[in-house]
């Protein structure tokens, strides 16, 4: 029997298989940031041991950093302490740090790919659930807890049970205005936030192979939101072209050798998955969430479900969510006023996301009622956006172009949505309080966010696309 892509990568990294238990899995690339690493380093210090292979670890601050005046000292004391600790710990253990003023600083899941640190066939971990992003390159990438961060720092290995395998196939032509963000929100709305629990997901079909690498990263990024351990897409010419020439990508003969291996990373025709799901690209329209988890999503022209459409067990959570969001079951979202728009995060903070947003708003004006934060995912994205004049387009339309960081994706820095306010966000989670205590978040694509920013209300982006 043939092997899946996941099997090939996983099995080649198993150091020891514990009988009836987890695998001891070797980790090629360990990414760390300021939030989940301090306790891990403290654990090493208490045990009197060093980082085993510091050259395999890369660090950057992202969650707590401000997106304005980054040259100044961080105002929030806890954030400042965590960022400073990251600097101290990486210096002590000889780990590469892209600090706050470094030209390569940014969100950890943005800088890994753009620097060529993320490569096909790797095992990649980080103390952050959205490590699944890197699976877009055909790697086995997943988030880990703080005690596991310490384990990898100490041994370059991790104890991990092997997940089951799921394949999600989508073929056909995507409709106008449908993006990678809409694809993944559609899938999660179909299978729920627990529908892939215990699985590693491979995405297959023309809807995925037709995406750019940045689009594929968006899909894999949100795989975690349906309960999966991670997601991946087989590498192809699009992948190889993206990696070639990047700072830490293989060069010369090493490139040729790696490329030969990377081309073998695909699921065998006779490989068997534990579960298969198939959808039609034509059924997907621009998506938006209406509730308090990423699975509570609908096509933007659709209606919030009524109680009668839900199973008895689903109703309590649904009603709690409706109360928090102040929405009525059965109502439509189109036309509802919005207060904030946020473009950024490890889901949609890359250059293509900024380009799409800027192209949409070019020649238009931001609605007076909207507060909008446009936050690049890295210093490199920021630099490229300025070189392309994206910052000028945004400023002329009335938007604020900020400095890199996780920003309003989560309430761990100064960029918080006020209580009771509605935000259309290109991020990955819409949990209660995720963007600030009492904040009401609706997840959407950069195109939908741009349409909302211009009109001040929930708007189908396809209404404008003839003009774009």
What do we call the CATH homologous superfamily of the largest domain?
Aconitase, domain 3
The low-confidence runs, each spanning 5 or more residues with pLDDT under 50, are none
- Order of strands, main sheet, comes to 5-4-3-6-7
List the domain count as a whole number: 2
User: Which CATH first-tier class of the largest domain would you pick?
Assistant: Alpha Beta
How many helices? 16
Kindly state the mean pLDDT as a whole number? Answer: 97
Helix content: 25-40%
The count of DSSP E runs of length 2 or more, i.e. the number of strands, is 19
Shape: globular
Indicate the proportion of strand residues: 15-25%
- Gyration radius over CA: 21 Å
Please identify, by name, the CATH architecture of the largest domain: 2-Layer Sandwich
Broad structural category: alpha/beta
CATH topology of the largest domain: Aconitase, domain 3
Descriptive report:
The structure is a single chain. This protein is of the alpha/beta class and 468 residues long. It folds into two domains: 5-161 and 231-261, Aconitase, domain 3 (2-Layer Sandwich); 287-467, Aconitase, domain 3 (2-Layer Sandwich), CATH 3.30.499. Helix content is 31%, strand content 16%. Helix 2 (38-47) crosses helix 5. The longest helix has 17 residues, at 77-93.
